[in-house]
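Protocol step 4 of 5: obtain the predicted structure for the target chain.
Materials: sequence only (see below). No template structures provided, no constraints applied. The aim of this step is simply to have a reference model before the mutagenesis design in step 5. Sequence pasted as it appears in the construct record:
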Amino acid sequence: MSVGKISALCWTVFVVMSVASLPLGYVIVSIHSLPVAVRGVLAAVVVGGLWWGPFAYAMYLSLAVMRNGDKRLLRRGIVGTAQVLSAKRTNTVIQEGEFAWEAPRVYKYQLRVTIPGRAPYDTDCRICASGIQEGQTVHVAVSRHNHKRVTIDVGQTSARQASRGIRPVPVSSAAAPAHQHTLHGDAERVTALAQLGQLHSQGLLTDAEFAQQKSRLLAD
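Step 4 output (structure tokens):
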């Protein structure tokens, strides 16, 4: 199951429990075969877990996994590559800053993933990372227990690596459309600047490092 589907399931459970929490709690406290204290604790655990647990996990998926890329997965997952089958700019933003215009937008990428020991398969990845285009081949990390859960590595794995310069998302010459081979100069610079801004907004580059890398890119 992909992160998008997990997030949708969490929000669905939360909405259902928003309506069913009181009836469910009443049913539990009505089990007279259990001591009153046990019934109270059981009701709190069950209702609280089913109600606020999915909400907390959905918020984690939004603010951590989609906002910054799944860093835990990048550290512990299976390293692979993926061909971008489609790239879609969604209407979803992850609000963190004071102003709405500061909120990064979520992009949905349909991927064909290749990892060792498994035939290529399709899944999707939702992440606040612009500039990735259809036909590119990107680095990914895949969950060991849920191969549909994938995150794209756009350079967020190490602040040290980021401070030494942008690691661009590579383009596969075999998968990219023929006209992409003619894109040079300004187009590549715009993509690199977009990735640089993403790293800066994620806190992986300080203001000084961001200014230095930006100046270097503009001077090339």
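Step 4 remarks: The chain has two domains: 3-68, 71-219. The chain is about 45% helix and 20% strand.
Proceed to step 5.
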